[in-house]
Design brief:
By secondary structure, this protein is α/β, with parallel strands linked by helices. The chain is 38% helix and 26% strand. Helix 6 (165-180) links the parallel strand 7 and strand 8 (184-188). The longest helix is centred in the middle third of the chain and has 16 residues, at 165-180. The structure holds adenosine-5'-triphosphate. Keywords: ATP-binding, Cell membrane, Membrane, Nucleotide-binding, Translocase, Transport.
């Protein structure tokens, strides 16, 4: 479990993170999203016991990141944006070296290394020096390194940057599997479709503070209201009659000549009645579909609304 309680960090007069509260339960993946300079990396570095918090508290699996820093580092797997790999070492040698540093027994380390190198398609190049690896291969190696001691907590900072679509897919699938293994994962990313796909909850940080947090469905409802539906009529000439027939059932919006829209949380109850009415009135329905919502729309809206108030760093 990851816990941040009123966590804060200042660099000189500059407040990088302020009163940040966040909990990531075991088996949960939370995506931390935010504009450049929002405080994501600073937060992760504090939670991973790399940077001491300026104020507040952080705990990993119940251990305080300051008083039990060493223990916390052993329980955390960290994939940073710029992983420094030792280029002269071969892949397998590197993992043995890192595993030993983290206290992983040699035979176990070799077994895990093989399983992970195979999972990420790097087994064939296990004896090649890391300096000959492409950016994407290095990123995969950094992820394997973060997993070599089988940590209960993972911090993944931009895990799929620099990867081709197929490699990014492999890594995303692997992240999905890691989550079901009862780990707590905090993912920072600028790739919103990746966050939408992987995250159980989304936390949006701006100016060092969390300005929104919840599941995609919760944030959608809070910001955009109940799910929205769109009905397309077979014949645009029926539109005035369709509006009249549905008016007392739902708040109908005319979207254009042959399309009507509404929002409801109870589509399963409403739609059979509504379709029956239209049918009885002899009004043809071409299609009825829920309007897809994207995390990108929500994110841009949350950040734009927050920008309308003064920057929290100077509040
Ligand atoms: N060691 C430091 N000294 C001074 N300022 C710092 C230091 N580390 C971070 N900052 C500042 O704190 C703010 C937050 O930085 P941080 O790297 O946490 O942001 P981020 O959300 O990870 O950004 P990005 O998406 O660009 O990676 C930035 O304005 C950064 O310049």
């Amino acid at each position: 479990m990851i816990e941040a309680i009123q966590l804060g960090k200042q660099f000189g007069d500059f407040v990088a993170v302020r009163d940040l509260n966040l909990v990531v339960q075991p088996g949960e993946l939370v995506a931390l999203l935010g504009p450049n300079g929002a405080g994501k990396t600073t937060t992760v570095r504090m939670l991973a016991a790399i940077l001491p918090p300026g104020s507040g508290q952080a705990r990993i699996c119940g251990y305080d990141v300051v008083s039990h820093a060493q223990r916390v580092r052993g329980m955390v797997g960290l994939l940073t944006e710029y992983p420094g790999l030792y280029g002269r070492m071969a892949a397998l040698e590197y993992l043995a070296f890192f595993g030993a540093l983290l206290g992983v027994e040699a035979t176990l380390c070799r077994q895990r290394s093989e399983a992970l190198l195979r999972q990420f398609g790097l087994w064939e190049v296990r004896d090649r020096q890391l300096e000959s690896f492409s950016k994407g291969m290095r990123q995969k190696m950094a992820l394997i390194r973060a997993l070599i001691h089988d940590p209960p907590v993972l911090f993944l900072d931009e895990p799929t940057t620099a990867m081709d679509p197929q490699s990014a897919r492999t890594v995303r699938d692997a992240i999905g599997e890691l989550r079901s293994a009862q780990r707590s994962i905090l993912l920072t990313t600028h790739n919103l479709s990746e966050a939408e796909e992987l995250a159980d909850r989304i936390a949006i940080i701006r100016g060092g503070q969390i300005i929104a947090c919840g599941s995609f469905a919760e944030l959608s409802r809070q910001l955009l209201g109940e799910p929205a539906f769109e009905l397309k009529l077979t014949n645009p000439a029926d539109q005035p009659r369709a509006v009249a027939v549905l008016r007392d059932l739902v708040s109908v919006q005319v979207l254009d000549a042959d399309r009507l829209g509404w929002q409801t949380a109870e589509a399963h109850l409403l739609h059979p009645v509504l379709l029956n009415r239209l049918l009885t009135a002899g009004i043809g329905v071409h299609s009825l579909a829920e309007q897809p919502r994207r995390l990108e729309d929500l994110y841009l809206r949350i950040v734009a609304e927050d920008e309308a108030v003064p920057n929290p760093r100077s509040r």
